Amino acid sequence: MSEVEELALSTPAAIKPPVDLADMAHKEFRDDDYWRVIPAYANLGTDEFNDHRFQSRNSITSLKKLQQVVGNLVPDSFYQDVEKGLALSPMSVRISPYLMSLIDWTNPATDPLRIQFLPMGSRMLPDHPELALDSLHEQEDSPVPGLTHRYADRALFLTLDTCPVYCRFCTRSYAVGLDTEEVEKVHFGAIVDRWEQVFAYIESRPELEDIVISGGDVANLKAEHIEYIGDRLLKIDHVRRMRYATKAPAIMPQKLITDTGWVDALTRVVDKGRKLHKEVVLHTHFNHPHEISDISRRGLNRLMERGIVVRNQMVLQRGVNDDVETLHLLIRRLSYINVHPYYTFVHDMVRGVEELRTTLGAALDLEKQVRGRTAGYNTPTFVLDTMGGGGKRNVHSYEHYDRETGIAVFTSPTVRPGELFYYFDPIDELDPLSAKRWHNPTERKSMLQAALDLASCP
Ligand SMILES: *Cc1c(COP(=O)(O)O)cnc(C)c1O
Ligand code: SF4
Predict the structure, then answer these.
(1) 68, 6 in Cβ contact below 8 A?
(2) Total of domains in the chain
(3) Ligand 1 contacts CB of residue 180 (under 6 A)
């Protein structure tokens, strides 16, 4: 008998080795007074801190406010670095006390929450030469202001242009947030008149069965607006599915506990939809396991009790969640609190966040390591929203991808048949020789053409 055969006989094949209890970290939900390390929050009790009104009123919106709150937890050089970062950023800053408290201020440079919400000039990289603002062409697919109708049976309704926090990586930096020095935004006010145009358009298109109610973030809609929009859409016979999109569970879970009016309004729309045999769900946006604490668990339990389905769309970000351990932990922790991991997005090509983007290759490798770890319905589909309005594509479905030049080419048969769409890896992730080619305009042109030629066979 060979050694392998002997081993096979001595170990019963069906018994798995016991798991390491350290592998159960996804069930640990932080429940200490973690905010007390922040000088400005040191004296706050649980009830005060865990109130959504406290959270919104005390969000950090400027460097000055940041300094007042964090004080001497970080050296002056850190504040200077952030000042440089802010000057280079297209997005305004807005960070909830909840997120502020979960950042490790002894090491902010590499903290996954700091990276997502607060720019540090010293860590930023020049944008990719092929990058554009509104790289997804949402404005071009917009038949009425605040509605993007790109896919056959569904549309994206931008109800307002503000969010409870601003993410550095936001795709909608063309419209969301206060004006910064960098971008003069196209404004969508929360105006019922404008919404009426959107409803009229949806009514006129019988093929629209699925409406994404987004923004901005619907957490900033008043409870009566949540219900008004929901009721108005439920009345449209052909609308069968709706999703409210909010980051609140991830960045201000207190909302789900203390904003009873808002949660009740949402619940009424979901219940009414159910009686009409229409699906109304919540889509949210967790990116890192540190964003999920005991208050998140309690908030999501409340939604579970009310029969509200929650799905998660995450964005892959370098240094935040682009390693398999972090991804597994995030997916398992979300699953544990009944949030379905729906999508993992490859970072869009947006300005001022080049150091956050990963390569397509990184996404391909991570997908292979993630699939199969847990239930299929709790395994995110890895997608990439192509530049130029081709829409979301499965990362594995490229027509051509060259890991050396970092150029990927996709087709989009259901959205824009017959066209080709690019995605570009961040140049600093390429090998130095290929990176150098990008700095030469003639080389650049020939790399782009070569990729198209290789892709356009079918
Ligand atoms: C992502 C998106 C949708 C929804 O697409 P799903 O794949 O069904 O989640 C709808 N409209 C636009 C413009 C989108 O970007
Ligand atoms: S919550 Fe969404 S819309 Fe608002 S800044 Fe973040 S990614 Fe953009």
Answers:
(1) no
(2) 2
(3) no
CA dihedral (440, 443, 449, 451) positive or negative? negative
> Is 29 contained in some domain?
no
SS3 366: helix
- Sign of the dihedral through C-alpha 147, 150, 156, 158: negative
CATH number where 287 lies: 3.20.20.70
Q: Which domain holds residue 371?
A: 139-393
- Whether residue 444 lies inside any domain: the answer is no
Same domain, 262 and 385: yes
Q: Is 154 in the pocket of ligand 1 (CB under 6 A)?
A: yes
Closest listed ligand to the CA of 242: 1
Q: Are residues 171 and 235 in the same domain?
A: yes
Same-domain status, 116 and 180: no
As annotated, the active-site residues are: 150-151, 154, 163, 167, 170, 172, 348, 385, 392
- Claim to verify: residue 43 and residue 192 sit in the same structural domain: no
Pull the structure tokens for residue 21: 């209890």
391 vs 152: CA distance, rounded Å: 11
- Do 206 and 330 fall within a single domain? yes
What is the chain's pLDDT, residue by residue, as a tens digit (458 residues)?
A: 566 666 656 666 788 889 888 889 999 999 999 999 999 999 999 999 999 999 999 999 999 999 999 999 999 999 999 999 999 998 889 999 999 999 999 999 999 999 999 999 999 999 999 986 666 677 778 999 999 999 999 999 999 989 999 999 887 766 676 655 555 566 655 578 889 999 999 999 999 999 999 989 999 999 999 999 999 999 999 999 999 999 999 999 999 999 999 999 999 999 999 999 999 999 999 999 999 999 999 999 999 999 999 999 999 999 999 999 999 999 999 999 999 999 999 999 988 999 999 999 999 999 999 999 999 999 999 999 998 889 999 999 999 999 999 999 999 999 999 999 999 999 999 999 999 999 999 999 999 999 999 997 55
If asked whether residues 154 and 114 sit together in one domain, one would say: no
Do 111 and 156 reside in the same domain of the chain? no
Looking at the domain assignment, is residue 207 inside a domain?
yes
CB neighbours (10 Å) of residue 222? 12
Query: How far does the centroid of ligand 2 lie from the alpha carbon of residue 105, in Å?
Result: 24
Going by alpha carbons, the residue nearest to atom 8 of ligand 2 is 170
On whether residue 355 sits in a domain, the answer given is yes
How close is the Cα of 279 to the center of ligand 2, in Å?
A: 24
Are both 75 and 171 inside the same structural domain? no
CA 337 to chain CA mean position, Å: 18
Residue whose CA lies nearest to ligand 2 atom number 3: 216
Helix axes 223-234, 192-204, angle to 10 degrees: 20
